[in-house]
């Protein structure tokens, strides 16, 4: 009798423990931290779109917090998500690298995801986008259209791989073209970006690639007023003016987030780097302006198909 009572007690204890245990490898609730805002029409907006896709695909509760851009704010946000039983957190940028790697051991039931950064633990994953390839084909397009043979990259940081790609793509079309490169230093510093753009315009640049977040749209709007040309960034920005935006270097961050969520839900997501490129359908060149002739469009499309097969850009084959 005593033995039976002990067995019943143990069974109740085990069932109770299972009821409250985390569903390892299964999405419960998903959180996203955004360094700026989800309404910037570029980086924040596309990240939020990815969160909504996860909500729809996995019938999951999702949460987001805006303007989480410092260590104290990140730690408080993660603590709040943990209370809500969130077990997958996306830090929408490289800003979350240090803190995620620092605190991940405190939250073994949460998997942390960030962009373009270091991931040193089993429950931290970094998503890397091959910006060099998309920059290359954007640079080709800019060089093909430029009348002054002087084009500009208005970048945020020197480490952005799309800068190198853009320059090499432009040189592939015209080895004598001049590429003016300036750095804003902050993804959202619209005031500084506009000042640097004005310097580019005075220098004779007629196609600009504003490779940044919040300043991207204001710069393109000014380019439109000045009658110059732009290469869009992150999303297809042809809706800002298809006679202004020659094409866009598109990162389907939303698609990458859904792929990551799917791996997590299947229990196959590992720590470390997850790299995405044209071959994954995550990166592409956006719609071409009607100002870009058909033969050049076909040439770029053919080169992209070759790149998907070989993994080599046309200047490296």
Account of the 3D structure:
With 317 residues, the protein is α/β, with parallel strands linked by helices. It has 2 domains: 2-129 and 254-280, 3-Layer(aba) Sandwich (Rossmann fold), CATH 3.40.50; 131-251 and 287-316, Response regulator (Rossmann fold). Helices cover 44% and strands 20% of the residues. The protein contains 10 helices and 12 strands. It has helices at residues 2-20, 43-58, 71-83, 97-103, 131-145, 161-173, 190-202, 216-226, 253-266, 294-310, and strands at 29-33, 61-65, 88-91, 111-115, 124-129, 150-155, 178-183, 207-211, 229-234, 245-251, 272-276, 283-285. The strands form 2 sheets. It has a 6-stranded parallel β-sheet, sandwiched between helices. Strand 1, helix 2 (43-58) and strand 2 (61-65) form a beta-alpha-beta unit. The radius of gyration is 23 Å and the shape is globular. Residues 5-23 have low confidence and may be disordered.
Strand and helix map with partners:
Layout: H1 2-20, E1 29-33, H2 43-58, E2 61-65, H3 71-83, E3 88-91, H4 97-103, E4 111-115, E5 124-129, H5 131-145, E6 150-155, H6 161-173, E7 178-183, H7 190-202, E8 207-211, H8 216-226, E9 229-234, E10 245-251, H9 253-266, E11 272-276, E12 283-285, H10 294-310
Parallel strand pairs: 1-2, 1-3, 3-4, 4-5, 5-11, 6-7, 6-8, 8-9, 9-10
Antiparallel strand pairs: 10-12
Brief summary of the model shown:
The protein has 317 residues and is an alpha/beta fold.
The span between the termini is 79 Å
The first-level CATH class of the largest domain is given as Alpha Beta
Number of E strands: 12
CATH topology of the largest domain: Rossmann fold
Number of helices: 10
Helix-strand string? HEHEHEHEEHEHEHEHEEHEEH
- Overall pLDDT level: 92
